[in-house]
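Example 5.3 — Alkyl hydroperoxide reductase AhpD
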Amino acid sequence: MSIDNLRSGLPEYAKDLKLNLGSLSRSTELNEQQLWGALLASAAATRNDTVFSEISEEASEHLSEEAFNAALGAASIMAMNNVAYRAKSWLGDDYAQVKFGLRMNIIAKPGVEKADFELWSLAVSTINGCEHCSVAHDKTVRSEGLTKEQVWEAVKVAAVVQAIAQVVQVEAAR
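Solution (predicted C-alpha coordinates):
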Protein backbone atom coordinates (compact mmCIF):
# COMPACT_ATOMS: atom_id res chain seq x y z
CA MET A 1 0.00 0.00 0.00
CA SER A 2 1.45 3.34 -0.97
CA ILE A 3 1.40 6.58 -2.87
CA ASP A 4 2.74 4.59 -5.84
CA ASN A 5 -0.30 2.30 -5.68
CA LEU A 6 -2.59 5.32 -5.80
CA ARG A 7 -0.70 6.79 -8.73
CA SER A 8 -0.62 3.55 -10.70
CA GLY A 9 -4.32 2.95 -10.09
CA LEU A 10 -5.42 6.26 -11.57
CA PRO A 11 -6.88 6.21 -15.10
CA GLU A 12 -5.31 8.06 -18.02
CA TYR A 13 -7.73 10.99 -17.70
CA ALA A 14 -6.22 11.67 -14.27
CA LYS A 15 -2.63 11.79 -15.54
CA ASP A 16 -2.16 15.29 -14.13
CA LEU A 17 -3.08 14.00 -10.68
CA LYS A 18 -0.50 11.19 -11.03
CA LEU A 19 2.17 13.72 -11.91
CA ASN A 20 1.15 16.16 -9.19
CA LEU A 21 1.08 13.48 -6.51
CA GLY A 22 4.50 12.27 -7.59
CA SER A 23 6.04 15.73 -7.41
CA LEU A 24 4.29 16.64 -4.14
CA SER A 25 5.44 13.42 -2.46
CA ARG A 26 8.99 14.64 -3.09
CA SER A 27 8.30 18.15 -1.77
CA THR A 28 11.24 20.28 -0.79
CA GLU A 29 9.04 23.04 0.68
CA LEU A 30 7.85 20.91 3.60
CA ASN A 31 9.90 18.76 5.93
CA GLU A 32 9.07 15.05 6.11
CA GLN A 33 6.73 15.38 9.09
CA GLN A 34 4.88 18.35 7.60
CA LEU A 35 4.46 16.60 4.25
CA TRP A 36 3.31 13.22 5.53
CA GLY A 37 1.08 14.79 8.16
CA ALA A 38 -0.56 16.90 5.44
CA LEU A 39 -1.00 13.83 3.24
CA LEU A 40 -2.48 11.80 6.10
CA ALA A 41 -4.79 14.53 7.43
CA SER A 42 -5.97 15.26 3.89
CA ALA A 43 -6.57 11.57 3.19
CA ALA A 44 -8.68 11.32 6.34
CA ALA A 45 -10.63 14.44 5.31
CA THR A 46 -11.56 12.90 1.94
CA ARG A 47 -13.55 10.14 3.68
CA ASN A 48 -12.34 7.74 0.97
CA ASP A 49 -11.35 4.33 2.34
CA THR A 50 -8.94 3.51 -0.47
CA VAL A 51 -7.12 6.83 -0.38
CA PHE A 52 -6.91 6.75 3.40
CA SER A 53 -5.65 3.15 3.45
CA GLU A 54 -2.95 3.75 0.84
CA ILE A 55 -1.67 6.97 2.35
CA SER A 56 -1.94 5.98 6.01
CA GLU A 57 0.11 2.84 5.61
CA GLU A 58 2.95 4.71 3.97
CA ALA A 59 2.60 7.68 6.35
CA SER A 60 3.18 5.33 9.27
CA GLU A 61 6.69 4.76 7.88
CA HIS A 62 7.44 8.51 7.86
CA LEU A 63 5.70 9.76 11.01
CA SER A 64 6.18 9.03 14.68
CA GLU A 65 3.15 7.63 16.46
CA GLU A 66 2.59 11.06 18.02
CA ALA A 67 2.69 12.82 14.65
CA PHE A 68 0.46 10.18 13.04
CA ASN A 69 -2.13 10.65 15.79
CA ALA A 70 -1.81 14.44 15.64
CA ALA A 71 -2.51 14.41 11.89
CA LEU A 72 -5.62 12.33 12.49
CA GLY A 73 -6.50 14.65 15.36
CA ALA A 74 -6.24 17.65 13.02
CA ALA A 75 -8.60 15.93 10.58
CA SER A 76 -11.10 15.05 13.28
CA ILE A 77 -11.18 18.39 15.09
CA MET A 78 -11.43 20.27 11.79
CA ALA A 79 -14.32 18.05 10.69
CA MET A 80 -16.17 19.49 13.68
CA ASN A 81 -14.83 23.04 13.64
CA ASN A 82 -15.25 23.58 9.92
CA VAL A 83 -18.96 22.80 10.17
CA ALA A 84 -19.47 24.95 13.26
CA TYR A 85 -17.49 27.96 12.03
CA ARG A 86 -19.15 27.90 8.61
CA ALA A 87 -22.56 27.76 10.31
CA LYS A 88 -21.72 30.73 12.58
CA SER A 89 -20.75 32.69 9.51
CA TRP A 90 -23.88 31.78 7.56
CA LEU A 91 -26.18 32.49 10.47
CA GLY A 92 -24.91 36.05 10.70
CA ASP A 93 -24.21 38.67 13.30
CA ASP A 94 -26.74 37.33 15.80
CA TYR A 95 -24.39 34.37 16.34
CA ALA A 96 -21.09 36.25 16.46
CA GLN A 97 -21.05 36.37 20.27
CA VAL A 98 -22.61 32.96 20.91
CA LYS A 99 -20.33 30.78 23.02
CA PHE A 100 -18.74 28.14 20.81
CA GLY A 101 -19.23 25.46 23.48
CA LEU A 102 -17.25 22.64 21.85
CA ARG A 103 -14.13 21.02 23.29
CA MET A 104 -10.95 21.55 21.28
CA ASN A 105 -8.22 20.54 23.71
CA ILE A 106 -6.09 18.89 21.02
CA ILE A 107 -5.38 22.28 19.48
CA ALA A 108 -3.56 23.36 22.65
CA LYS A 109 -1.65 20.07 23.06
CA PRO A 110 -1.49 18.21 19.74
CA GLY A 111 1.67 16.22 20.53
CA VAL A 112 3.70 17.86 17.72
CA GLU A 113 5.00 21.32 16.94
CA LYS A 114 2.21 23.89 16.82
CA ALA A 115 3.13 24.96 13.27
CA ASP A 116 2.82 21.39 11.95
CA PHE A 117 -0.56 20.73 13.58
CA GLU A 118 -1.90 24.08 12.39
CA LEU A 119 -0.59 23.39 8.86
CA TRP A 120 -2.45 20.07 8.80
CA SER A 121 -5.56 21.78 10.15
CA LEU A 122 -5.28 24.31 7.33
CA ALA A 123 -5.04 21.54 4.72
CA VAL A 124 -8.16 19.85 6.09
CA SER A 125 -10.00 23.17 6.33
CA THR A 126 -9.36 23.83 2.65
CA ILE A 127 -10.81 20.43 1.75
CA ASN A 128 -13.82 21.13 3.94
CA GLY A 129 -14.27 24.58 2.42
CA CYS A 130 -14.04 26.61 5.61
CA GLU A 131 -12.71 30.06 4.78
CA HIS A 132 -12.71 31.20 8.41
CA CYS A 133 -10.58 28.27 9.59
CA SER A 134 -8.27 28.36 6.56
CA VAL A 135 -7.51 32.04 7.14
CA ALA A 136 -7.07 31.58 10.90
CA HIS A 137 -4.68 28.63 10.49
CA ASP A 138 -2.72 30.48 7.79
CA LYS A 139 -2.25 33.40 10.18
CA THR A 140 -1.06 31.06 12.91
CA VAL A 141 1.42 29.08 10.81
CA ARG A 142 2.81 32.26 9.30
CA SER A 143 3.30 33.70 12.82
CA GLU A 144 5.06 30.43 13.71
CA GLY A 145 7.58 31.04 10.92
CA LEU A 146 6.24 29.04 7.99
CA THR A 147 6.40 30.69 4.57
CA LYS A 148 3.60 31.30 2.12
CA GLU A 149 5.29 28.70 -0.12
CA GLN A 150 5.02 26.10 2.64
CA VAL A 151 1.38 26.98 3.22
CA TRP A 152 0.65 26.74 -0.48
CA GLU A 153 2.42 23.38 -0.67
CA ALA A 154 0.07 22.03 2.01
CA VAL A 155 -2.92 23.44 0.10
CA LYS A 156 -1.68 21.71 -3.06
CA VAL A 157 -1.36 18.44 -1.13
CA ALA A 158 -4.96 18.81 0.07
CA ALA A 159 -6.21 19.66 -3.43
CA VAL A 160 -4.50 16.72 -5.10
CA VAL A 161 -5.49 14.20 -2.42
CA GLN A 162 -9.11 15.39 -2.62
CA ALA A 163 -9.10 15.13 -6.42
CA ILE A 164 -7.62 11.63 -6.28
CA ALA A 165 -10.32 10.58 -3.83
CA GLN A 166 -12.94 11.82 -6.29
CA VAL A 167 -11.38 9.86 -9.16
CA VAL A 168 -11.12 6.71 -7.05
CA GLN A 169 -14.79 7.06 -6.14
CA VAL A 170 -15.83 7.67 -9.75
CA GLU A 171 -13.86 4.68 -10.97
CA ALA A 172 -15.35 2.44 -8.28
CA ALA A 173 -18.83 3.44 -9.43
CA ARG A 174 -18.13 2.82 -13.14
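Remark. The chain has a mean pLDDT of 95.
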